[in-house]
Write a structure and sequence with these properties.
39% of the residues lie in helices and 24% in strands. By secondary structure, the protein is of the alpha+beta class. It has a two-stranded antiparallel sheet with strand order 1-8. It has a two-stranded antiparallel sheet with strand order 2-7. Strands 3-6 form a two-stranded antiparallel ribbon. Strand 4 (88-91) and strand 5 form a beta hairpin. This is Lipoprotein.
């Protein structure tokens, strides 16, 4: 009798839960997202001209810790509603019909941090109290990158409408201002 349990278990596979399969997909796409996001998007950063990058990082870490203490993570588990797929009739040329019954599909379970938006506002307010503003600096064109000397920004310069950034291979960045040529 005990052998029957093992033989049944060997042919009946339990489907993966939606949580595990979601985690697998997320883990596989995370490196691709990081690579693509690091290469093509703008540099979204808190900015205060004249501040050193190390001071910025220290202030941002301190504000993140303060925001997390003031507005802790509050994960809530939620469930999407199930979806019903109605049945259908299948008939052959002889007029014989069969009915395929409808079925329900689980909507899935997910979690959400209901304090995330408030925590981000507390972080932004903390950084504003220290003199920083959130900015988005566009990525420099390939031509600008090729003509610029390799360097890393250590002190945040004043920004202009022509400012852009270059992502360095070591993870650092360089903020530069393009010079507009005068025509005419």
């Amino acid at each position: 009798m005990a052998d029957a349990i093992w033989s049944v278990n060997s042919i009946v596979k339990s489907p993966p839960t939606s949580h595990n399969s979601t985690m697998r997909v997320s883990i596989h796409f995370l490196p691709l997202t990081l690579v693509l996001g690091a290469c093509t998007g703008p540099l979204d950063v808190y900015y205060k001209p004249g501040a050193t990058v190390t001071r910025l990082q220290t202030d941002e870490t301190n504000c993140e810790v303060k925001a997390l203490k003031d507005v802790p993570i509050s994960e809530q588990i939620r469930q999407r509603p199930p979806i019903y797929y109605p049945g259908s009739s299948i008939c052959n040329g002889a007029g014989n019909c069969w009915y395929r019954p409808g079925y329900w599909v689980d909507g899935g379970i997910y979690s959400v941090d209901v304090n995330k938006d408030l925590r981000n506002r507390v972080l932004t307010q903390c950084m504003a109290d220290k003199g920083y503003s959130p900015v988005s600096i566009p990525l420099c064109s390939a031509g600008v990158k090729a003509s610029a000397p390799i360097a890393t920004t250590t002190t945040l310069p004043s920004l202009t409408e022509t400012s852009c950034y270059i992502k360095n291979e070591d993870g650092g960045f360089q903020i530069i201002s393009q010079v507009k040529s005068k025509q005419g």
